[in-house]
Amino acid sequence: MEQWTIQNSIEQYRIDGWGAGFFSVNEAGNVSVTPEKDRSSVDLCNIVEDLVRRGIKPPHLIRFNGILKQRAQGIYEAFDKAMAEFEYKGKYILTYPVKVNQQRQVVEAVRKAGNGRGMGLEVGSKPELLAVLSMHDAPKGLLLCNGYKDYQFIELALMASKLGLRPIITVEQFYELDTILRASEATGVKPEIGLRMNPTSRGAGRWAGSAGENAKFGLALYEIVEAVKQLKARGMESCVKLLHFHMGSQITSINAIKKVMKEAARVYTELFRLCPAIEFLDVGGGLGVDYDGSCTNFESSMNYSTEQYARDVVWEIAEACNDLAIPHPTIVSESGRALTAHHAVLVTEVMDVAEVPEPPTVPDPLPSNDEKLKDLAALYRDLSLKNCHEVFSDALSMREEFLQLFIQGSMTLEERAFAERTLRNLFTRINQLKGKMKHVPEDFEALEGMLKDTYFCNFSVFQSMLDHWAIDQLFPIMPIHRLTTQPTRRAIIADLTCDSDGKIDKFIDLKGVQRFIDLHPYRGDQPYYIGMFLIGAYQECLGNLHNLFGDTNVVHVELDENGAPRITSIVEGDTIKEVLGYVQYTQEDLIHGVHTQIDRAVFQGTMSPEDSAKFMQRYKESLSGYTYLLWESPNGAGNAFNEPLKIAQGGQ
Ligand SMILES: Cc1ncc(COP(=O)(O)O)c(C=O)c1O
């Protein structure tokens, strides 16, 4: 076989498809990250090793603010180009919907990513509004207030105009109009109102239900007309400043975007007739991310580029307005996923592997004289390329039969163990023979599912990649080093949670979903790091505390003026006492409870006073420690505690 190269790894993991120019593999065989175009690349593995040396343990969530800047610039440039092409007279404002990732450092970095062009912020709840009010200081900075609102929310939003911001309160539900009017009267602030329409045209992709007839948000056209009527009756139609719609996130098909744009642009022109002070057309989110790099309308992909998106948005609005000779509105997009997904990578380490072993050429010695087991051993001995299809179906029915015999008590544990191991070895050998067949029988597909290694990794799917569990979203995943060698093990990834759903067994593929990932053999004495990419959108705030695995350590990496990578900030992950605090255990109560247990044990003589001191010391150390596991190598490198805790046997 030819020598494996880094190019093979780039193709194997389809990096050119999803990497968007930010990710590649360097000469050392490590993943490299180029956060800013035409500037230096960063060796991801070096960063992880540096962090480990500093005592910052994996899993690490690594954020590249340069990528945020680059993504924002890309979106702005796409709109600039489209506006120039279609002689568009209005402006474009990129607005970040903070729900996509509300972490303070992310919102701050996104604001800076506007790079002089400004960046609007969108909020969908009171907590989001309060967070944004503390940092949004751009003069006349756009503050879009979406989501369900109460009086308090609206009052605060209105008063934000006195801070120099430009809050626009979007009516999502008809009743909100009345609350806006009441709050406006009480505060003396003239509201700037957005109307959210509910487009009839549906999106395409997993969130298509966000638009269309039974959508949760937005006004029907008759409600928009009624809202305008009520405002007109008060002489307040000039308060209508914005028309908004959102057709769902991760729109996979450009045709769906064109269709909804036509409808929205028409509504805008009609609204302009009724409320000529209107200025903005807010096209919501939906700009997709090509997670699997297939460039198709598959759920984890998108069949268009940012440039095509911008062209279609600008063209449809320009055409509708030009037809009626009305001014081009300022276009706003609330592109959250497209802005943030690429900038964050989770790096986890493998803790252990359950490998599918290499099968022996002859069956193991029989544990008894059972006739059925003898038949199985004969099947194993006689397996050949010619009979392997027949042997496969016989083996499947034997598997069922052995289970029944065991349940009925006609088979011992040792006999069943022999059957189980022999069957697994038999399936492995059949799978090996499969590679030599000209025509592979369809039912052999099941073999793939049976014969995969499990790589146990130090992370929680529920904390760091919730969408994989909840909605089968695919993310690019690959080792971040050893990429000059071929990955020879076929595997799935299991997390630390005691939940059978806590695993990743669906991976990106050009033709759909791949049920395994190829990884390198785990060597045990050295760390093996796996990166989970494009997780900067939605995953952090959706993540939960299943099994009390908390926030991971987070680091921010930027290039300094000389292009050298710098870790600009480290946010330590949750400690055990913090996550226990979330479920109402205070440190004081915990320590008091353990003291009580220890006192009893010392009194009863099951624990020596010396051991009680060590136990308490370890308990307190653990409370202040990370919720994830501490990787240990057999030679002691990276071990959790330098000095092992020796417990005296039998108390005194
Ligand atoms: C109203 C609104 N705007 C914007 C977004 C962000 O969408 P995306 O992340 O697809 O850009 C969402 C997310 O669902 C949304 O509900």
Give a quick rundown of the structure.
Helix content is 39%, strand content 16%. It is of the alpha/beta class.
Molecular structure report:
- This protein is α/β, with parallel strands linked by helices and 652 residues long.
- Among the domains are: 82-342, Alanine racemase (TIM Barrel); 371-448, Methane Monooxygenase Hydroxylase, Chain G, domain 1 (Up-down Bundle), CATH 1.20.58; 576-623.
- 39% of the residues lie in helices and 16% in strands.
- The chain contains 22 helices and 23 strands.
- Strands 4, 13, 14, 15, 16, 17, 20, 21, 22 and 23 form a 10-stranded mixed beta sheet that branches.
- Strand 2 (31-33) and strand 3 form a beta hairpin.
- Helix 13 runs parallel beside helix 15 (413-434).
- The longest helix is centred in the middle third of the chain and has 22 residues, at 413-434.
- The chain binds pyridoxal-5'-phosphate.
- Pyridoxal-5'-phosphate (PLP) binds at residues 97, 100, 146, 246, 249-250, 284-287, 334-338, 537.
Defining key terms:
single chain; TIM Barrel; Methane Monooxygenase Hydroxylase, Chain G, domain 1; ten-stranded mixed beta sheet; alpha/beta; binds pyridoxal-5'-phosphate; 652 residues
Structural class: alpha/beta
Q: What are the bound molecules? A: pyridoxal-5'-phosphate
Percent strand equals 15-25%
Main pleated-sheet profile? 10 strands, mixed
State Rg.
30 Å
Distance N to C terminus = 63 Å
The low-pLDDT segments are: 638-642
**Number of contiguous helices:** 22
